[in-house]
Amino acid sequence: RVLRRLPKCVSDAPNSWAGLPDNDTMPCDDCLQANCTRVHSSGHTPEQSSPGHFSIDIYALGVTAVHGGYKYAFGVHDLYSKLTWVKLMKHKSESTACLREFHRFCNRHNVSIRHIHGDNDTTFGRSQTSAEYLTGDFGKLIREEIKCGFSTCNENDPRGNGAMEVQWRIHANDTRSMLQMSGLPRNYAGHALLHSVRTSWFLPSSN
To answer: Who's near 35: CB < 8 A, 6+ residues apart?
Structure first.
């Protein structure tokens, strides 16, 4: 009875959710939908009247990309222009390199990074055992190269970074639609996500 209520890709291989090694079954659309829906949040960050304020987050694709083996996406959302920038990653540890690339992207377009807001992910430099911030290479990049303000969510508030998380839900649902309409397998999700984000750059914005 339980298996009949689960997505087909899970019910076909119960070992994957029983604590045993993962299987190679391709995730179904229900899996991708659950993955994008669970990060939805209302925006907690106030509107900005000047450029330079950004929200960052890491999104798990839910499936390994067919090319490159990417499993995560590093995203930045401009609170002023509403532009979203995304880079695919194999590991969360690549976040520093992604932020450095985004910094170069901003420099090319004459945009200064004034403040970055992230969640409680330890990848962004928040210690699991103390309230210290900006530790490691990620913090060093912000302090010494970008030289901007940085903040994270309050403890036990996983939805305090809603500005970027809302973008994940929008683009992840677009990704699902593209995969459905094109007939491509789910492991093209990372490339479809990039296409959704870059297409959004050409859409009208109030700013």
So the answer is: 60, 61, 62, 172
Report the alpha-carbon distance of residue 117 to residue 46 in Å, rounded: 12
Q: Which residue has the tokens 């491509």?
A: 184
Average pLDDT, the chain: 77
How far is the C-alpha of 137 from the C-alpha of 139, rounded, in Å? Answer: 5
Backbone φ, ψ for residue 66 (5° rounding): -65, -30
Please state, for a pLDDT cut of 90, what percent of the chain lies above it.
Answer: 39
Q: Which two tokens stand for residue 75?
A: 């995203």
Q: Tell me which H or E stretch contains 149.
A: strand 149-152
Burial of 53 (0-12, 13-18, 19+ CB in 10 A): buried
Measured distance CA(175)–CA(194) in Å, rounded: 9
What does the alpha-carbon distance between residue 165 and residue 76 come to, in Å, rounded to a whole number?
A: 10
Whole-angstrom Cα distance, residue 103 to residue 100? Answer: 5
Q: Is 47 exposed, middle or buried (0-12, 13-18, 19+ CB in 10 A)?
A: exposed
